[in-house]
Design a protein that fits this description.
Layout: E1 3-7, H1 10-15, H2 25-41, E2 45-49, H3 51-60, E3 68-71, H4 88-96, E4 102-104, E5 108-110, E6 120-126, E7 157-163, H5 167-183, H6 190-208, E8 212-215, E9 229-231, H7 236-241, H8 243-260, H9 266-274
Parallel strand pairs: 1-2, 1-4, 2-3, 6-8
Antiparallel strand pairs: 4-7, 5-9, 6-7
Length: 275
């Protein structure tokens, strides 16, 4: 099965207004292993990015990690506020990629061969409706007429992994999400807006279209040890704050590449030089 990684560089320049684009070393290592591990067991994988991202991977010599690096995300993100909607590139990439695919976050690794349902949407895991993260969607004030017809009680889908086999549902989801992001009024409530557009809306549209949802992970057992998936998300700040933890992690990544993917050992030098 085809898969895509997605990297829109626009949110980077919200935080780093001056200087050149870069990706932290631990993220690069995790992304490389995610791509190579997917290719090993599950099929082709492509990096969907913008012109700056494509040039960056080429400069580092990492473009052969994927089956292709595709510059399909507009550099201006079609006018969507990249500070409010830092993951908007994922929705645009899903719209622009021309065939069925699984969306795999750069910080998510699948360690096993997947057999995904052709009748259900598959996500990483479900999430609880915590009001500080998922408030009443009417509070957004966006031009979103479909909202009245959606069930607001369904649990959101974490989209660190996402597979939507039905083309019509995929199109409905990305079009409604992008329309919401474009109509939202600029404000400082970034998290709630983004997770509504990306995660809660998906679950509501599945309910609306009578599409079942399957999850790779049980939301109530996310911190129970397992060997099938790795999601780096929760550890990123700790990696930034703790130099020893960071070095131990990088050491494990280098060892994994040398052991499992020796033909790609050259990426280690490329990432180290970039750091």
């Amino acid at each position: 099965m085809d898969a895509i990684h997605v990297n829109s560089t626009k949110p980077f320049f919200v935080k780093h207004k001056n200087g050149d684009y870069f990706i932290e070393d631990f993220t690069l290592y995790n992304t490389v292993i995610s791509a190579l591990q997917w290719r090993k067991l599950n099929g082709d994988i492509y990096m969907c990015t913008d012109s700056i991202g494509a040039a960056y991977y080429k400069k580092l010599g990492l473009e052969k990690v994927w089956n292709g690096v595709l510059s399909i995300i507009p550099d201006d993100m079609e006018g969507i506020n990249p500070e409010m909607f830092w993951a908007a590139g994922k929705l645009i990439a899903l719209r622009e990629f021309d065939r069925e695919c699984a969306l795999v976050d750069e910080d998510f690794i699948v360690w096993k061969k997947l057999e995904l349902s052709q009748k259900a949407v598959t996500c990483a895991h479900r999430e609880d409706l915590m009001p500080d993260v998922y408030p009443d969607p009417y509070c957004f004030g966006a031009d979103f007429p479909l909202l009245d017809r959606l069930d607001k009680s369904v649990l959101p889908c974490n989209t660190a992994f996402l597979y939507i086999p039905d083309k019509s549902l995929r199109e409905l989801y990305v079009n409604q999400s992008i329309a919401f992001m474009k109509s939202a009024q600029d404000c400082s409530d970034y998290l709630c807006h983004m997770v509504f557009a990306e995660q809660r809306l998906l679950a509501m549209l599945c309910e609306f279209t009578k599409t079942s949802i399957e999850a790779l992970l049980d939301k109530d057992k996310l911190f129970v040890a397992q060997d099938d998936y790795t999601h780096l998300w929760g550890a990123k700040q700790a990696l930034r704050d703790n130099p020893q933890f960071r070095e131990d992690f990088l050491k494990k990544c280098r060892k994994r590449i040398r052991t499992d993917f020796p033909e790609y050992e050259y990426v280690i030098e490329a990432i180290e030089k970039n750091g």
